[in-house]
Fold:
Amino acid sequence: MELWDICDSKGIPTGRTIEKGSDFGEGEYHIAVEAWIVNRKGEFLIQKRSSRCQHYPNVWSLTAGRIQAGEDARDGCVREVKEEIGLALEREELIHLAHVNREDNSHMIWEVFLARRDISVSGLTLDPDEVAEVRWVTKEMLEDMIRTEDIFTYPEMMDFFHLITENYLDKTAERKA
Structure:
């Protein structure tokens, strides 16, 4: 049984905990996390969701998930990345990019993080219930996937993409590639 801590619209815990799948009350939210992972070549790590996933099966996405009771957003992000693709990140290496309140009746607050890692996808251990495949894509490929919705998208995704490409990618590596 997975438990979720409930927070208010600012992300402050209310002290209430619910079981995954339970209904939320008015003004109640739960925190979800997303990890944008980039390498020195300016490539982005994306994953194809498993056909076994309840939501968005066989859809390309970034690593994301809901935090569990007792976790903060950083701990939840580290756990989700480890569980889904077997990559062990450290809390301290996560760069917080955004805090977004979803106003779509999902009752979610989206905490978005960036991590920089140079890893081989062949060294990752994928959770077959969550992830079917991972791959590195160039920034041009990811931008095209976002525009054509060939990856799970949401309203602020292109803003995050531009924030990362303009402020966090190694410009010398991009010129060499």
